[in-house]
């Protein structure tokens, strides 16, 4: 999924939240405010002249989604530069608008989820939802996400409760909206017995992995280039970089290693009293690191190799690639199912003619 598509999903929620009368249209004054705020969080120079010209007061009535799209594309999205803004800020702006109108966790009694967790689940939902509007998440993707959250807590998903939720007619036909999904999570039935703190930590971990594109993070020992001493650093691996910090709060960055198809990872023998050693070779330098045990070394080397492969294949997101593969598998299963039904109908018609 490209950056524009990701941004549009969040902005769609913001636009529909401003559609108070649910007529498919939003007042020009509200769109001016939304556009100004989007320019701010996207680090785009705001053009008030173009905005006023596009939404002239003598135009008839409020603006529909289709009417807003030309302005949104030309004056905002076409000017977006990847890396020049923090996408989480865009998501938070849009979440604040849509949650104010649509999110009512208290209607199910005491909510299980604090606002931060609800926001992160909303972002995860957007990422895994189908790329069409109105946004829904198919049951298979719901199960995939919930299994990852439960795995992060080392508990089993309550499959019976999930099946009951998915078997509802509206869900079966259309998939889940984000509000139905958040209601399910706030019911506590799917993660029954889990402590709030454990659930929050699991949601954060899955959010960082899928939305934040963190393939792996943790402490490693790193050998210095000049002093050649070993220092423990907190490493964070994303598809394009391996960054290391003084500690896990990530406040003080010590370095960043760009990853591309020229990089490779090698296992090394015990060195300087350090076990589970491996190295990352780039065109300019070789980085030596040591993991806590062989399992961690295997996980790190595999994750780094995955990042290198993604770059070689021209892909910027592991989970966008995995989502596409799951969708293709669902489509293939559906084609096979339809082919079997067609064959069965032909067979039944043939048998009917023979009688």
UniProtKB/TrEMBL annotation:
Residue ranges, compositional bias (Basic and acidic residues): 324-345
Gene3D superfamilies xref list: Pleckstrin-homology domain (PH domain)/Phosphotyrosine-binding domain (PTB) (2.30.29.30)
Gene Ontology cellular component list: cytoplasm; nucleus
SMART domains: PH
Superkingdom as given in the UniProt entry: Eukaryota
Domain PH: 213-309
InterPro entries noted in UniProt: EF-hand-dom_pair (IPR011992), EF-hand_SWAP70_N (IPR057836), PH-like_dom_sf (IPR011993), PH_domain (IPR001849), PH_SWAP70 (IPR057837)
PROSITE patterns given in the database record: PH_DOMAIN (PS50003)
Signal peptide: none
Positions of the UniProt region annotated as Disordered: 324-355
SUPFAM superfamilies cross-referenced by the UniProt entry: EF-hand, PH domain-like
Protein name per UniProt: PH domain-containing protein
Species the sequence originates in: Albula goreensis
């Amino acid at each position: 999924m490209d950056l524009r598509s990701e941004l549009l999903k969040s902005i769609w929620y913001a636009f529909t939240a401003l559609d108070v009368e649910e007529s498919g249209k939003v007042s020009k004054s509200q769109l001016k405010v939304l556009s100004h705020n989007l320019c701010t969080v996207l680090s785009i120079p705001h053009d008030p002249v173009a905005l006023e010209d596009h939404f002239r007061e003598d135009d008839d009535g409020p603006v529909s989604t289709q009417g807003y799209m030309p302005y949104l594309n030309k004056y905002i999205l076409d000017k977006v530069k990847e890396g020049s803004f923090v996408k989480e800020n865009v998501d938070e702006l849009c979440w604040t608008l849509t949650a104010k109108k649509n999110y009512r966790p208290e209607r199910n009694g005491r909510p299980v989820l604090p606002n931060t967790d609800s926001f992160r689940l909303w972002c995860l939902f957007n990422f895994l939802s189908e790329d069409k509007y109105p946004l829904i998440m198919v049951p298979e993707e719901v199960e995939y996400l919930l299994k990852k959250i439960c795995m992060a807590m080392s508990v089993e998903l309550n499959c019976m409760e999930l099946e009951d939720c998915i078997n509802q007619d509206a869900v079966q036909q259309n998939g889940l909206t984000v509000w139905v999904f958040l209601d399910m999570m706030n019911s506590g039935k799917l993660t029954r017995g889990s402590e709030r703190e454990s659930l929050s930590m699991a949601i954060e971990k899955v959010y960082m992995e899928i939305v934040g594109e963190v393939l792996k993070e943790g402490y490693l020992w790193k050998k210095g280039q000049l002093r050649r001493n070993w220092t423990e650093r907190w490493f964070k691996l994303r598809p394009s970089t391996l960054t290391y910090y003084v500690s896990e709060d990530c406040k003080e960055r010590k370095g960043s290693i760009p990853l591309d198809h020229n990089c490779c990872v090698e296992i090394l023998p015990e060195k300087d009293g350090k076990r589970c050693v491996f190295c990352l070779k780039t065109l300019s330098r070789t980085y030596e690191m040591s993991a806590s045990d062989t399992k961690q070394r295997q996980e790190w080397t595999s994750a780094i190799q995955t990042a290198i492969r993604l770059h070689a294949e021209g892909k910027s997101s592991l989970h966008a690639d995995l989502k596409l593969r799951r969708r293709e598998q669902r489509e293939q299963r559906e084609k096979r199912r339809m082919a079997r039904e067609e064959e069965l109908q032909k067979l039944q018609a043939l048998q009917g003619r023979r009688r």
